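REVIEWER CHECKLIST
Item 1: Sequence provided? yes
Item 2: Single chain? yes
Item 3: Sequence as submitted:
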Amino acid sequence: MGRVGLKQNLRKSILLYRTQLDEVVYAARNEKIQNLCLDFMLQLQIQSFHTYLAIPKNKEPKTNQIIGESLALGREILVSRTDLKNHQMLHYLFDPKIDLVSNNYGIPEPSSGIKKTLIGVDALIIPLLAIDKKGNRIGYGAGYYDELLSELGGAKAHKIGLCLSAPLDFIPFAESHDVPLDFCITPNNIYKFS
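Item 4: Structure as written out by the authors:
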């Protein structure tokens, strides 16, 4: 089995593990991650950020509490809608009054809104399946977040992953175009990568 096959098997195993998590355990881990993230955002003085909206069927770490409390603090929040035809993400100012609709992947997205760019955001909150101790992440394999991260170029935005479990020692699949994250927040720790 080649590298691609091994990576796909790892993705499937992690996703299967995550979807089998007990609901009580999942809820507790979510609450811890979101509270740690909110405290960390205060520490980093985050005023504007881009975040994902969790895919319910995949039991991703949720971001609803982060979004709600950030709105109350007056932070600017951007979310994306996927342009599947052109393989890109379009960014919109989050507005709780705008309906969210699920795309073909089951990702909640804004149905309309004010289009924005990532220029000037302080942080990006990134979904992932797994991460290693160097900040290399494994996503779902479609490459949308790889493109989003490279879109930043030399911008100073903090790249923060949310993960339900601790980092792996090493992911042997990192490629030259992969952009490592700066931090990962798990239920019990905030990991910083150099």
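Item 5: Key structural point noted by reviewer: The chain is about 30% helix and 25% strand.
Item 6: Recommendation: ____
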